[in-house]
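Quick one - inputs below.
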Amino acid sequence: MYIVGVTSCATGIAHTYMAAEAIKKICKKNGHKAKVETQGAMGLENQLSSKDLEAADCIIFANDVKITKAERFDAYKDKIKQTSPHEVIKNPEIILQLIGQ
Amino acid sequence: MEKVDITEVMLPEMTILDRETFSGKEEVFAFMSEKFAENKIVTDAKKFEEALYKREEEGPTYIGNLLAIPHGICDEVVRPGIGFCRVNTPFIYRSHGEEGEVKYIFTLAVVGEEGKMEHLRILASLAGILAHDEFIEALGKVESYEEIIDEINKVKEEV
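Output:
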């Protein structure tokens, strides 16, 4: 599967980047391709393109603060699964549940 | 991941490997705030301590896996810093309605103003490294500051 995600957190330093790494790691371990956009203190990085969203089997939102440029996702609401960065970091397996595996 | 020099923000003076334990989060915050002040990372230990508590209101800094990552952002932080503390006996760390045993604490000091991007990147890349279980395992075995830096670089090469 192709999993894309967006992470953000209050301070924009720790949880955003830990959660991004946790998503990539659990996906890799289970043979899924992943791309994660981080919305942290350094702004939007590794930004998801419309091509990414189109190709994605699942879009993971792991955000504590409002997602920037949220309108990009409007056409793909069915693919979106909501969680929090804290949840992903504590229990990365939640990603597998969210993508239905 | 690109190689960033973590030694710029993670100083040997703020790496404590031989602490017996803490009575709780409160003692950690006071202790690390003093350390940051001593090493000129923050200009005011009390203000930084307040910033650590302020962040606690927004969500848990207890991570699970014996790990906690309190972090403070305020104007009194003059340069970014990472303090690491390992205790011999795990203690209960309570954070935003969650709690658990903690043995490894990474305290992050984040500069209040914007524009120190390269340092933010180092803090962020450390955060990414903390998501790797094998790194957390290695933290239990390291015996020196240099060994921690080696372990960090090992994870970096992988990702």
